Amino acid sequence: MRLDSNTPLTKAVPKAPKDLAAKLDLHTVGDLLRHYPRRYAQRAELTDFRALAVDEQVTIVAEVRRVDSRQLRNNPRKRMLTAIVSDEHGHQLKLAFFNAVPVHERQLRVGVRALFAGKVSKFNKELQLAHPEYQTLDGSGDAAEEFAGGLIPIYPSTKSIASWRIGNIVRHVLDLVDLPEDPLPAQLRAGHDLVDWATAIRDIHRPSSYAAVGRAKRRLKWDEALILQLTLAQRRRSALARPAVPRPGRPDGLREAFDAALPFTLTSGQREIGALLATELAAAQPMHRLLQGEVGSGKTVIALRAMLQVVDAGGQAALLAPTEVLAGQHARSLRALLGPLAAAGELGAAAQATRVALLTGSLSAAAKRAALLDAAGGAAGIVVGTHALIQEGVQFAELGLVVVDEQHRFGVEQRDALRGKAADPPHVLVMTATPIPRTVAMTVFGDLETSALRELPRGRSPIATTVVPVAEKPGWLDRAWTRIREEVAAGHQAYVVCPRIGDTVRSGACGAEPEGTEVVDEEDLVGDEEEGRDRRAPLAVLDVEPELTAGPLAGLRVAVLHGRLPSDEKDSVMRRFAAGEIDVLVATTVVEVGVDVPNATVMVIMDADRFGVSQLHQLRGRIGRGEAPGLCLLVTEMPPSSPPGERLIAVASTVDGFELARLDLEQRREGDVLGAAQSGRRSGLRMLSLLRDEDLIADARKEAFGIIDADPKLIDHPGLAAEVAAVTDKERAEYLEKG
Q1: Residue 721: phi, psi to the nearest 5?
Q2: What is the 3-state composition of the chain as percent helix, strand, coil, each rounded to the nearest 5?
Q3: What is the four-CA torsion angle of 108, 111, 115, 121, rounded to 10 degrees?
Q4: Residue-wise pLDDT tens digits, 508-549
Q5: Is the overall model pTM greater than 0.70, yes or no?
Q6: 77, 373, 448, 536: least surrounded by Cβ within 10 Å?
């Protein structure tokens, strides 16, 4: 029976393990062929045991050094076999078997080399594999014979499916499959010295040398990069296909009045990007621009000036924010910046004034009704909101500009859903304070033009960051609370940030021993899990606040802020904090973006190792926003030499968000970076590295946009069209599944 890429694995390999679909998401022959080996071992090569970690599922190559069997004391009728295997450095690992001992005794003789697969555990302080699967490499078995003298592919596997079982299935399929015609044009392959697809697939699974592996990987990386860039190029071309309504500036309009009343001077970067946006808004071609800028670089003012230009031209602007706290903060900030210009219909309003409406899910029925009417009737030139903006029933009189703040919190679908509220294609401005490496910008935001705002406005104060290693220097935590008291005494305010909300069980947050276990019911816990299996639960707002109030911060005005508070209570807390009525705000990451209280000068981040690099940088940006310098203290129990400790030291060493963005990309799984930014799903990239393949991605982008310019619907490239359709169909199906 001949197979093709769409043949179900259940038909191609009737006895294939069910877990291929359930655990590895492999359903068709094509899925299997794209399940690439994660590394290769040579027949004579042994694995360095120093790289093994407890609880890791591993496939290793090792040599049997000693074999022993004995009866079990508690069950004399059963025997246990232990085998000691070693690597080339002499490091040893114990294998333990309790079943089929005679079979293992025949297979595992001293001197035998084999592939062993299992989960690393620790017994009596020694690493071991209990009941590992294995396949000898000394002349018996399909794998040994097939790869004698060559390379052995080691596949991503599970507890129930060993790597060599996947390899056997791949070999079976490769012998029967009719591989499709190469989707890449011959001219493109020749121009970039790429092997054909069939050769790449066979060499990635059954290589004769590492050179063959290298050629195969390069070709398969090109496929991934090109298909992604073609998808983005089509999306961009589609967005530009319908003309937008031009929104030119007006000499006597809101924007000019706003500029005249500004109490500060725009930076050169703000002026330059502002002029670019003004030109693009005035064109009939819809603007699609990503504005990335450092925390506090003044992106909001740039966006507001663009929104005012659209209002001057008879349109409306919608600002989409990821949280109610940030949406409320934006609405207050815009009204404060505009003053009488945002008071249409009120006494003292400017002649050309408009309104700023706020629409969130937890507004009262009356407030929501008023906001909906202002949006639908056009009374509100600017409508700020959360996901509530994209719900059914929300209408605009003439939506001309969509501004998406903190784009990394949203997917493409939400952006498109808000654009769909306009009768004509609106202009789109996407903003992020998380600096983006060039490769991520090309792959995640490839349908947008990109601008970067690196210059900070005058008056921004420096921020000093210090790691507080409480396990080694417990006294430093007492000093942190003292620093907060000193800042409050000087008339300033402080944040204390915790990874989660928590419940009523105390967790020993401020140096005391934990009193029982916590239920992890957090909203924003995101940090890495390195070395965290035996750690206590992350510190929580509802535990830390009472300990601080009764202990080191007694007598200060302390309040809490987290996502489970009712909307009006969150709004009240933020207003009181902004007004200086609260000294210390104990909060989750709801304060991560957009919160602007210039009088806040110190931030203590508890369990800082639980947060990612970019998140720490965002949090730190909440202080130092006034004339007084800022101090950020990263509290951790992790040793400085550990990966989390090293990450915190790196964050403390620089306030350059672009440098930290690259560090973040180095330390995070690239698929997660892409998935979170695109549509909340895991990325389909298997070979491509956003960190190492920058030049390749740039070349693929150039080729992709050239192909789409010449053949927008890929009619002359049916193979590429099928690959792009598979990507977009999967995205659409997963979006619909999410509701």
Answers
A1: -60, -40
A2: 40, 20, 40
A3: 70
A4: 455 433 322 222 233 333 333 344 345 688 999 999 999 999
A5: no
A6: 77
